[in-house]
Structures are given as C-alpha cells and as structure tokens.
Specification:
The chain has 282 residues and is an alpha/beta fold. Helix content is 38%, strand content 20%.
Length: 282
C-alpha cells in the first residue's frame, strides 16, 4: 500500500493508473476505522482495478463546541487495517494541504442540507459537500462508496454529483451493526459501558416504527411521538425521529411507498444517528 500526503503525489499515481486503463474506486473516511469502513473497502474493491482510501478529519464539518479536537485519530491502526485489506493507496493529507491559504469556495446543497441533522448542525453538510467535492476532484474516481448509516449525507452527495455533473458513480453499502443492533460508528468509542447497554434502543425504536407502518399504521406523527417518548425514558436526548420519503427526505404521508425513518439522539455526550429503509405495499 502506498501512502501519500500531497495532492501532487496522489494525482501522479492516479494518472499512471488511468493511462494504463485501470479504473479507480474510492472510499473517503475520517479514520478511526471499524468493520463498517472495511465493508465499504471490501465492496469497493469488487468494482474497480485500483482502490483508494482517504483519511482526513475535516474541520469544516464540525461546528463550534463539537468534537473536532477530540475526534478519535488512530492513524497507525488504520494503516494496518487498510494494508490487510489490500488497499492500493492511502491519501493522508493535513488541513493546509486540503484547504490551502484562505479558501473561499463552499459547496452547498440547498434544502437537503437544512433538514434533520442540518437543522441542528448548521453548516455541517456544507463542510461535507465541500470536502467530498474536493476529494473527487483530487482522486477522480470512477466509483465511490458510502455507508447508508449516514443516509442524509449519502443523499446530499448523490444530489451534488448529479447537479455538478461529476463523473463518479455513487454506491451505498448497508449499515454494519454490532450484535446488539447498534450501528457501528467511530463515535461509539465515546460511550461508557452502561451507555453501550442503552444505545441499541435507538435501532430498536426504528424497527418498532417500521413494523407498525408495515402493519398498516398511517398516523406517522403518533409513531414518531411514541418513539421519542420511549427514547427519552431510556435516557436519550432526542434531536429528531422522522418518517420520511426516501427521495427527498421530507416528511412522508400515508400515500408514500418508499420510506426511511431517520433518527438522531444524544446519549450522554455521544450523538448517535441511525435509520431504517423499507417499502410499503399500498
């Protein structure tokens, strides 16, 4: 596995691959790699000749008072995992390499970026869209893989790629979960042992909501309220729990057939997000 820290080195290697007629798959990460990330790599490797992973903790997607400074950084362990996964190239830039001096351009996806997590984390998705757009320009992959756990992020990136005519295919991989049902996340490391016993209730609430809808319950607001009460009683501070349309993430009504239930809640100091997608036969 080659490890590069500059855009020039990255582009030179990718240029040689493309000249040889080789396709490139890409998985962007913020490091602290777990089985969910490695599943993305596993799936991405099936789709192209060469495999690129980036690790960059992006300051632009962290708000004031969020966990940028303490976000888990496990560079040595991450390198070992990627080496074992037979990744061809790891791009490991620093902040100055990514943003230069006084960067003035921001990529913002209207509407989608203001919903759900965007409402409580203003500017977060602008930071995500900007850094992913930059990484796509640097790597120029044929295909890029993202996890479904960050469902809103996935929708925003797909919209950005379509709107800006970026020639990359966006693929998604199902959320990888602990045996308890808890969605794997780098931030799970913040959870205390007793909180780890409670955290899976977020996914349980999503499953209950899905099952009620599949059984014919059409009062989505009642389902949402029941879930919020359940989670609050379990010790969560709920940001949102919403039954939405898959295509644009706006609130769903009883006529919709393709649904996603989105949830975000804090447990102690740890913010957890999760979702569940399904279709209803009308």
């Amino acid at each position: 596995m080659q490890v590069v820290k500059t855009i020039v080195d990255l582009r030179n290697i990718a240029k040689k691959w493309r000249k040889a007629g080789e396709s490139i798959a890409f998985v962007p990460t913020m490091g602290s790699l777990h089985a969910g990330h490695l599943k993305l790599v596993e799936e991405a490797k099936k789709s192209a000749d060469r495999m690129v992973v980036s690790i960059f903790v992006n300051p632009a997607q962290f708000g004031v008072g969020e966990d940028f400074e303490v976000y888990p950084r496990t560079e040595d362990e991450d390198k070992q995992k990627l080496q074992a996964s037979e990744v061809d190239l790891l791009f490991l830039p620093n902040v100055s390499e990514m943003y230069g001096d006084g960067a003035k351009t921001l990529v913002s996806v209207k509407n989608l970026s203001m919903l759900h997590c965007g409402a409580s984390r203003p500017g977060h998705f602008d930071g995500v869209a900007t850094v992913v757009c930059k990484l796509f320009n640097m790597v120029q992959p044929d295909v890029a893989f993202f996890g479904q756990k960050d469902f809103q992020q996935l929708a925003i990136i797909r919209t950005m790629v379509s709107d800006l005519n970026i020639p990359v295919e966006i693929m998604s991989v199902e959320t990888v979960r602990e045996s308890s049902g808890l969605a794997m996340s780098s931030r799970n490391g913040y959870l205390f042992s007793e909180e780890l016993q409670v955290a899976p209730k977020l996914y349980q609430a999503l499953c209950v909501a899905r099952d009620e809808i599949l059984l014919g319950e059409k009062r989505y607001s009642a389902i949402e309220n029941e879930a919020v009460t359940y989670l609050q009683n379990a010790g969560f501070m709920v940001d949102y729990f919403s039954v939405c349309r898959v295509d644009d993430l706006y609130k769903a009504d009883k006529r919709e057939t393709d649904l996603v239930v989105l949830a975000a809640a804090k447990l102690g100091r740890t913010r957890l997000i999760d979702n569940i997608c399904f279709s209803v036969v009308r």
